[in-house]
Structure formats: C-alpha cells, structure tokens
Amino acid sequence: MKLAVVFHSASGTTRQLAQAVAAGAATEPGADVCMAEIVGSDIVDGRFQNSTLLQQLSGADAIVFGSPTYMGCVSAQFKAFADATSELWAEQDWADKIAAGFTIGANLSGDQLNTIQYLQVLAGQHGMLWTGLDIPGGFSTKLSDPAKHNRLGAQSGLIAHSADGKVHKTDLLTAYYLGQRVARLAAPSATPGKRNGNARVLCKDPVWYAFNRGGL
Ligand SMILES: Cc1cc2nc3c(=O)[nH]c(=O)nc-3n(C[C@H](O)[C@H](O)[C@H](O)COP(=O)(O)O)c2cc1C
C-alpha cells in the first residue's frame, strides 16, 4: 500500500506535521510512504509544473494533503498544485483513493476549518474517500488518552496551532495518529466500518515518537 503526504510549508511548521503524518503511516505493515513537498520552483508563471510529483501521487493508494492556513484558506502554492490536478480530475484518476488533510495557523480560531473544508472539497472533486479523526477532542468517555490527542477538537481533519513557530507536541502526536489511521484504512486488509488489527492505539505519553503500542 502506497501513501503520499503532499504539502506546502514556508516556515516549517506544516512540514513537521507532514513528517509526523508520514511517520505514523509508516507504522502500518507493508506501507510505502512518501513525502511530496510543493516548493516555489515547482511554480512557473503562476502554474504548478511538477508533473513528476503528480505522477507520484497518481501511484498512491492514499493521499494526505497539508497546507498552512493563509488568509483563511490554503496557501497560494498549495492552490497552484491543486489547480494543476485538474487534468487528473477530468479522468477521475484519483477516484477511490483515501484522502485526509491537515493545516496549521497562528491564531487559535484563525479560520483553519475553512482550509480543511477546502481540502475535503478538493478530495471530493477527485472522487476520493475522505477520512477525518475519530477522536472527539477531550470528550471521549471510552478512550484512555492521557496525551489528549486532537486538543483543538476538529474532526474533519487535523487542525494545529502555533503562535511562535514551534509545533505543539500534541498536534504532532495527533498528526502521527492521523497518518496511522489513513494507512490502516488504505491497507488491503481493511474492512469498511470495522477496525482491524492493532487499530486505534493512542500514545499514552505526549512525547514525540514515543509511540506506545499498549495504548488502549
Ligand atoms: C500570508 C500569510 C497568511 C496567514 N493567514 C493566516 C490565517 O488566516 N489564519 C491563521 O491562523 N494563521 C495565518 N497565518 C499564519 C500561518 O498559518 C502560520 O504561521 C503557519 O504555522 C505557517 O505554516 P508553515 O510554517 O508551514 O509555513 C498566515 C501566515 C501568512 C504568511
């Protein structure tokens, strides 16, 4: 199973989340995970021109989209990438791939949800199958989750917040979990509507990469 994380990041916080998503996805047995970063030189005269990256994504079973929130939506660089997928859209090349998304903003309520919803619409246009987070913020009565994943409580995708350029450990752990979840759902053994194998193991310790498989 191949999973790609495609993202844009100017100052590195979205990149850290992307790395965490990829690391979480890599824990799924048989997962082949790649990071695809959208960079300025991919964009020529306002158009995203990196056809190699697009081909790479077409070969994936699951794609996780990541962008910083800029002015209440994805960054211009991410949007240039999204516009360039229109030829693939015409063929519905990405139909039935699993999709998910994440974003980060400097304000606690900095309109990040609109970014997630844009990513969800993008996935919908491609006929992809969107997956969010199955963690109800701090309100779970069934989960033992001392790390308090999904601290900001968004479930359509991961919303993170950083006021100082540092990424909160819990946001990284939630990104890691999102990667695990997407990889698990994209795995050939996945059964729709059922959790399989080692599903839904939350980290007990909010330390980056201190993944504890004895979770639940
Ligand atoms: C042009 C621009 C627009 C931004 N707009 C928003 C915004 O609408 N809401 C928000 O919460 N943060 C906003 N931010 C802050 C960024 O989302 C935040 O710094 C983020 O961590 C940057 O991600 P990066 O480190 O991956 O580049 C904006 C930053 C820039 C440069």
Automatic annotation (TrEMBL):
It comes from the Bacteria. Pfam families: FMN_red. Its cofactor is FMN. Residues 3-183 form the Flavodoxin-like domain. GO terms for cellular component: membrane. GO terms for molecular function: electron transfer activity; FMN binding; NAD(P)H dehydrogenase (quinone) activity. Gene3D superfamilies: 3.40.50.360. Keywords: Flavoprotein, FMN. PANTHER family: FLAVODOXIN-RELATED PROTEIN WRBA-RELATED, FLAVOPROTEIN-LIKE PROTEIN YCP4-RELATED. This is Multimeric flavodoxin WrbA. It comes from Alkalimonas amylolytica.
